[in-house]
Write a structure and sequence with these properties.
Blueprint lengths: L1 H25 L18 H9 L10 H7 L4 H14 L4 H14 L12
Helix pairs in contact: 2-3, 2-4, 4-5
């Protein structure tokens, strides 16, 4: 008799532990998705010319093609679009992030916290 009771208790304990640990694995929050540019990359050729031609000087007039293309987009999507435009040109990683932040600032868009061009 004692062995049946002990077996029921062992099974109940096993099932309880499994439910707890499986509950923890399902309760994790998925990581946020990277922002995606909703516009076609062909449209950003004129914006990528800004990064090619103005190696030193970037002002409101030179970034106007970029600003018109990202007008109406939220900050994450606009940042992703300008990163796509920069990928067409060849710069080192630090210069890309500095220029993207500069262009976003001139377009009056605040990039999301911790945003980096990948």
């Amino acid at each position: 008799m004692a062995s049946k009771s002990m077996m029921k208790n062992a099974i109940a304990l096993f099932l309880t532990i499994n439910l707890v640990f499986l509950g923890f694995t399902k309760a994790q929050v998925p990581p946020p998705q990277a922002p995606v540019c909703p516009r076609d990359s062909i449209n950003f050729i004129s914006c990528s010319n800004v990064f090619r031609l103005s190696l030193i000087l970037i002002n409101e007039q030179t970034v106007l093609p970029c600003c018109t293309l990202v007008a109406g987009l939220d900050a994450a999507a606009a940042s992703a679009c300008i990163c796509n435009a920069v990928r067409i040109t060849i710069f080192n990683f630090l210069t890309i992030n500095l220029r993207v932040n500069q262009v976003l600032r001139l377009c009056r868009i605040l990039p999301p916290a911790g945003f980096r061009c990948a």
